[in-house]
Amino acid sequence: MSSYQMATDCLHAGYRPGNGEPRNFPIVQSTTFRYETSQDMGALFDLEASGYFYTRLQNPTNDTVAAKICALEGGTAAMLLSSGQAANFYAVFNIAGCGDHVVSSTAIYGGTYNLFAVTMKRMGIEFTFVDPDCSEEELNAAFRPNTKAVFGETIANPALKVLDFEKFAKAAHAHGVPLIVDNTFATPVNCQPFQWGCDIVTHSTTKYMDGHALTVGGAIVDSGRFDWNAHKDKFPGLTTPDESYHGVTYTERFGLEGAFITKATVQLMRDLGSIPSPHNCFLLNIGLETLPLRMKQHCENAQKVAEYLQGHEKIAWVQYAGLPGDTYHERAKKYMPNGTCGVVVFGVKGGRAAAERFMAGLKLASIATHVADAKTCVLHPASSTHRQMNDEELRAAGVAPDLVRFSVGIEDAKDIIADLEQALAGVEAV
């Protein structure tokens, strides 16, 4: 565990240059690595030594940035992937396979829902989706003997529902499975799920961590606290010999602190190859260095935008956990006392047609299939990121047909509000 504060770790964690070495870590732009003997390389393939032999599995630049994100989350091991979608897939598929079952919150990103409900279902993994605000009894009723994990989002995209970590962690652990949480919107600056019982954290680093809409990427961080050995029958991939590596048992060789990430790297990354480029990881690190500064500005701006919209006659409703009276205000204060994120969702009076007119009138904000970067952008999820869902699934995910997702950037708040004002002026009052 680092002894530094978050802002310092964002700059220094993961890399300390030696005497005469570059102050910024280098981009190791190489597919392969040379060894003096076959025996030296063979030790890597047998997991008897640490090192690099092919960037499809690991790369020094990538691992340096992964170590920084691991420190920010307070974990014991981490890995970077080519997208947040890949991160969520690897995190679940690392412990669940054909014939297994996973419990997931309904309030998750539409792409993640599709990954679980369609693609992974075709792979033989069944998902039960539960309302994140369900009772403990309803949550526990969703578990089965073959359940392998529970999944949720810290702040749901785009519903902005705040997960009750303790309720979900309690249920997961009572049934002998880990809680996996996507912490993309809050980032470790505003929330550290491991402190509240979460076991594994994922990120779409494409969003606030990168912060500039430059690179697509993902991350998985392991808390190192879930006891896989206590539930050996549920997790044989971690607790029994892997014959593809001459019988290594991950929990024995790498301990609880390293077993999960090691298996995901040497098995899944080996076979599926969702590795980010070293250059992209280098760019990601530049974003990480200013993450605390940007998150503070995002949250301050979003609060002002939410308050402005809340008082506007052409706005039907506003949801932002920073608003007193919001459904998730008190829960957010508990889990994220320094702020939540820079995303505000709301409905324009007049429904979908009015929302589309409003969005077309924006000049500073861009209509884009992106969220959580330095520039303000806007999206209508029901017709884009969540368009694969029917009305019932949309309601379950907390996505109303008129919902506008407004990702507040770090421009001057006065300019953002002025843009909202002139765009709303072009919408007929209802």
How would you describe this structure in keywords?
five-stranded mixed sheet; seven-stranded mixed sheet; 430 residues; 12 strands; alpha/beta; 39% helix
Care to describe what's here?
With 430 residues, the chain is an alpha/beta fold. The protein is 39% helix and 13% strand. It is built from 16 helices and 12 strands. The chain has helices at residues 6-12, 38-45, 60-73, 84-93, 110-122, 136-141, 165-174, 187-190, 236-239, 250-272, 278-289, 291-310, 329-335, 351-360, 391-397, 413-425; strands spanning 77-81, 101-105, 126-130, 147-153, 179-182, 200-204, 218-222, 315-319, 343-348, 366-367, 377-379, 403-407. The strands form 2 sheets. The protein has a 7-stranded mixed beta sheet, sandwiched between helices. A 5-stranded mixed beta sheet has the order 8-9-12-11-10. Helix 5 (110-122) links the parallel strand 2 (101-105) and strand 3. Helix 3 (60-73) packs parallel to helix 11. The longest helix is centred in the middle third of the chain and has 23 residues, at 250-272. The protein starts with 5 loop residues before the first helix and ends in a 5-residue tail after the last helix.
